[in-house]
Amino acid sequence: MIVGIVKEPEEESRVAMLPEAVKTLKSWNVEVMVETGAGKKAFADDALYQESGAEIVDRSTLLQKVDIVCGIQALSIAEIRSMGPKSVLMGQFNALYNPELTHFLIHESRTAFSMELVPRTTRAQSMDVLSSMATVVGYKAVLMAANLLPRFFPMFMTAAGTITPSRVLILGAGVAGLQAIATAKRLGATVFAFDVRQAAKEEVMSLGAKFVEVEGATDDKSAGGYAVEQNEDFIHRQKEAIHEQATKADVVITTAQIPGKKAPLLIEERTVLAMKPGAVVIDLAASSGGNCALTQADQTVSINGVSIVGVGNLAAQLPQDASKMYGKNYLNFLKLIIKEGQMNLNFEDDIVSGTCVCHEGKPVNSRITQMINN
Amino acid sequence: MIVGIVKEPEEESRVAMLPEAVKTLKSWNVEVMVETGAGKKAFADDALYQESGAEIVDRSTLLQKVDIVCGIQALSIAEIRSMGPKSVLMGQFNALYNPELTHFLIHESRTAFSMELVPRTTRAQSMDVLSSMATVVGYKAVLMAANLLPRFFPMFMTAAGTITPSRVLILGAGVAGLQAIATAKRLGATVFAFDVRQAAKEEVMSLGAKFVEVEGATDDKSAGGYAVEQNEDFIHRQKEAIHEQATKADVVITTAQIPGKKAPLLIEERTVLAMKPGAVVIDLAASSGGNCALTQADQTVSINGVSIVGVGNLAAQLPQDASKMYGKNYLNFLKLIIKEGQMNLNFEDDIVSGTCVCHEGKPVNSRITQMINN
Q1: Which of A1, A283, B281, B327 shows the smallest number of beta carbons within 10 Å?
Q2: Are B184 and B280 members of one domain?
Q3: Residue B124 within any structural domain of the chain
């Protein structure tokens, strides 16, 4: 069988698998085709893929010939139609919130897997692209903030006096938030963090950050580690607490997203106007509406000396290691569906069925079925 | 008496003193005039200066009325002519290597002090702008590199495998180099450093970096902590050692400058061509010719996937804390020449005479005299 690695669209710098992943696939007796220039922006040129045993081909050849098309961003509908009839499509299509594509895949009797559907179980951790990309995003958000801030992150004791450390506020202590905390601490900042999930408190504190307490949050352990929507009274008190903390902060990094919903508004306009001149807000929820009232997606705006960065695809800004991690996640998943060099789709396996959008046009997992019936 | 703080030229974001320094001057019974908008790019607006007790005035009023003009970048010749006849000019004019300006100041019978002339003695440490700005530059160079690098700086052990730490090579372990080492270590990189001064070895190692040894360097302790020019045989072996280290590195930060001379060439073209795709070179000597053969001043070029950043005035990219440190250095110096609210120029003080370009048109220190006689 043949696995194919497609080139991503113009605005994406990552690639689904680097040459090192090709070597692993070859060791499984799997052939690999790579689209010309697929790894260029991740600093892996065609020659490196060839040295690892891949064949470099053009896009239409790849789509027609391979058994599994591996990518990150979704292909166009015309391109999916041009794929071999039995071949499998893989990527990160946001399948539950992209009904047009999901319905199309079902209608065309396709078999497709979408990596964001990987169950959040211990066994599936090594395939969890949401976690690995959130690690990249949290790290990169802090570097971006430190680079924009007109002040130092660390404390300095110099012959000419003391520079106090910067104060960083992280809203949301999921994987991205925790990585942001760890990176800001590394750089010497004083870090405060807030999360509606009480479970986050211990993790925040173990990284050396201070947890901002707001009593009475709704906590739903069945939400798979995600935060859930909160009642009005809590939201009011939360806003006051965040307002108070944000106006003392040099950097605010917001990471609060609710899958398939508009991001919660955490930083109001009045808060930005009361912040320190020179302060920086990095809004990682910009693509789903933003956690800050003044965020503009994919833009940096400056209001009263406060920079607000509406971050888009931040993982693409660390393309080499992001692709390395993505490829590892991919290989760990492919290991489940390739046996002795042949495709082996075992839907008894909860990871295989959980990640599947549809198999020969039929949904095999309850989340997709539910979405279709709505 | 009145101290004046001028607005810097367009390309400069720092200001000589922030509002907090104005408060100190006021406590010495000194009046302060600040040029409209002087602190804007350092996030200190006119209102803040006013609250601290300064009067906001236009540029020509300031130049005519104040007793000491405090700035960073040099003023134009016409502006110096417009200053009150007895007033003192202060800034960072690179006086020893700017003969045109120095001769003009002497010719016009001016009194001027240039902060880069502050002697490198223990007592003068608190006024040493070269050291404080080098601290800013070393920190900022690492942030810039980490932001450009397509890889993580720190090591990560994740469910999907291990990310190895980035390898950073620092050439020159002066103040900027040492701060770069410390910052890269904070961010979790593996750091190697090289310096021709054997004295640097211990400092490098105490920061947790590895010292790259090349035997037989010329070391001149009378050079005030600066490196001196090296013989041909040493330069050849040094280039080989640097070539070998640089081709293994993810980031190279070069800081080697010799005052008044062209910067030594440390990274040859063949070295860049042999570096890893995605690697980053930050050349802090770009304004004096560059330590890398392919550096272009004030530009970032990409050769075979290697980014080479020809850094200009990097201290200006951390304007708030850089101005804070600059202002502290300024205050510590002004304390020597202001007594009970009055100007008090005591040239018996080695710091006062050492920092003086000329007093009423006469050079008072041997470095300036020597330069004029050449």
Answers
A1: A1
A2: yes
A3: no
Using CA atoms, how far apart are residues B188 and A137, in angstroms rounded to an integer?
Answer: 17
Nearest chain A CA: its distance from B81 CA (Å):
33
Residue B190 C-alpha, separation from nearest chain A C-alpha, in angstroms: 14
Q: Do A43 and B186 touch (CB under 8 A)?
A: no
Which residues of chain B lie closer than 8 angstroms to A131, CB-CB? 158-159
In whole angstroms, give the CA distance from residue A114 to residue B319: 46
Nearest-CA distance from A96 to chain B in Å? 24
* Residue of B143, B183, B277 with shortest CB distance to A43: B277
- Going by the DSSP 8-state scheme, the letter that residue B95 receives in this structure is G
Sole residue written with tokens 């001064």: B197
Q: Which structural domain range is residue A242 located in? A: 131-312
Tell me the residues of chain B between 3 and 32 that have a Cβ less than 8 Å away from chain A. 13
CB proximity under 8 Å: B 249-278 to A: 276-278
User: How many angstroms separate the CA atoms of A312 and A9, rounded?
Assistant: 15
Given B263, B292, B312, the domain boundary residue is B312
Best of A282, A304, A320 to mutate (most B CBs within 10 Å, chain B) = A320
Q: Is the dihedral of CA B86, B89, B94, B100 positive or negative?
A: negative
Asked whether residue A124 is domain-assigned, the answer is: no
Which residues on B lie below 8 Å from A319 (Cβ)? 150
pLDDT tens sequence for chain A (374 residues): 999 999 999 999 999 999 999 999 999 999 999 999 999 999 999 999 999 999 999 999 999 999 999 999 999 999 999 999 999 999 999 999 999 999 999 999 999 999 999 999 999 999 999 999 999 999 999 999 999 999 999 999 888 889 999 999 999 999 999 999 999 999 999 999 999 888 899 999 999 999 998 887 776 666 665 666 778 888 888 889 999 999 999 999 999 988 889 999 999 999 999 999 999 999 999 999 999 999 999 999 999 999 999 998 999 999 999 999 999 999 999 999 999 999 999 999 999 999 999 999 999 989 999 998 87
- Say whether residue B127 is in contact with chain A using an 8 A CB cutoff: yes
Asked about A131 being catalytic, the answer comes back as yes
Q: For chain B, what is the domain count? A: 2
Whether A321 sits inside 8 A of B150 (CB atoms) is yes
Q: In Å, how far from its chain's centre is CA B61?
A: 30
Asked if the C-beta of A302 comes within 8 angstroms of chain B's C-beta atoms, the answer is: no
Of B150, B159, B318, the CB nearest to A150: B318
**In terms of domains, do A167 and A100 share one?**
no
Q: Nearest by CB to A161, from B42, B152, B328: name it.
A: B328
Residue B123 lies in a domain: no
Show which residues of B are catalytic. Answer: 120, 125, 128, 131, 226
CATH of the domain at A100: 3.40.50.720
Residues A111 and A25 in one domain: yes
What would the 3-class secondary structure string for chain A be? CEEEECCCCCCCCCCCCCHHHHHHHHHCCCEEEEECCCCHHHCCCHHHHHHCCCEEECHHHHHHHCCEEECCCCCCHHHHHCCCCCCEEEECCCHHHCHHHHHHHHHCCCEEEEHHHCCCCCCCHHHCHHHHHHHHHHHHHHHHHHHHCCCCCCCEEECCEEECCCEEEEECCCHHHHHHHHHHHHCCCEEEEECCCCHHHHHHHHCCCEECCCCCCCCCHHHCCCCCCCCHHHHHHHHHHHHHHHHHCCEEEECCCCCCCCCCCCECHHHHHHCCCCCEEEECCHHHCCCECCCCCCCEEEECCEEEEECCCHHHHCHHHHHHHHHHHHHHHHHHHEECCEECCCCCCHHHHHHEEEECCECCCHHHHHHHHC
User: Does residue A208 sit at the B interface (CB-CB below 8 Å)?
Assistant: no
